[in-house]
Amino acid sequence: MSTASPLPMNWELPQIFHERLGDGPGRQRVMQAEGHLLIVTHRPPRHNERVRAGRFFWRNPAGALQSSDLGQGPSSMIKHLEEYHAAIAKLEKAEADAQSSEEYFRVISELGPLLRATRNLQSTLQTARELSGNDRTMINFRDRSYELERSAELLYNESKNELDFLIAQRTEQQAASSHRMAVSAHRLNILAAMFFPMVTLATIFGSSLKHGWETAGAPLPFIGMLIVGLALGFMLNWFINVPVEPKQRKRHGADAKIPRTP
Fold first, then answer.
1. Which residue, among 7, 171, 150, 133, has the nearest Cα to 84 in the 3D structure?
2. pTM of the predicted model over 0.90
3. Are 38 and 13 in contact (CB under 8 A)?
4. pLDDT digits (tens, 9 = 90+) for 172-203
5. Where in the chain are the domains?
6. What keywords sit in the KW lines (predicted)?
7. Is the Cβ–Cβ distance between 91 and 111 less than 8 Å?
8. 3-state secondary structure string across 45-79
């Protein structure tokens, strides 16, 4: 079993911190011992990232803050929070540019882990603020993390609502198209039913009647037949494509629409 600690070896921390950590950071949390605070956080999650990368902040009894990879002082936590802000801003732009359900789904898929990370980060910094007393620096960190969590939550809800609206809009369009196709098919069936007996009788008994056009001057009869056929075709096309709105079912009783009160 590996006994290596993920914490920097040059940190003079209580041994209990090393013992309570596994090979990885684990969940975001705060540890306290002998006046020291160890804040375990995660870096902003990346797309399709399965294992969260950890980042540690150590606050010694004197109140000095140091990070595992972002330097020392309050600026290290500020840089950490700015990375979350940049990740949220990137997804905000992607959401604003999204046009299809696939693009909205991609934004939501990336935003879900980021929202959970910011929510856990805010809870972690809230605990760190409580354990550090009325340290104004920790209070500012806590407030900033809350703003990030709120921004990620609002963006997630907005993206989900946009996706739901887009799906509902596409469903309505498909329903309207299906209705038009059903009406057109019904009209064609009516026309076929009207002329089916005539076509059947003409097929059985024949319809080669003498009408005098056999000896008429060509090609006038043929051109006249084409003109009449085209005119009838345009009329048939208009008849089939006349828009018909679906009838709305009237609501009665408990199903009736209740007017809203101002």
1. 150
2. no
3. yes
4. 888 888 888 888 888 888 877 777 777 777 77
5. 15-170
6. Membrane, Transmembrane, Transmembrane helix
7. yes
8. CCCCCCCCCEEEEEECCCCCEEECCCCECHHHHHH
